Amino acid sequence: MKTKDIKKNIKGKSATELNDLLAQKKVALRDFRFGLAGSKSRNIKEGRGLKRDIARVKTELRSKK
Fold this sequence. Notes:
Blueprint: H1 3-11, H2 15-37, H3 45-64
Helix pairs in contact: 1-3, 2-3
């Protein structure tokens, strides 16, 4: 997804949906890191994008509290 799409998608979600999305992103980041150690992944920028998505979700969760 593009950054604008992610931002719009995050704004419309509830706190429980954001928590679920955060868990999914963390699992994806973990899988990426383990795949990188086994040299399965070739797209290095994917990790950076996942970390930024996690930060966006955490920021939105914080603002909803």
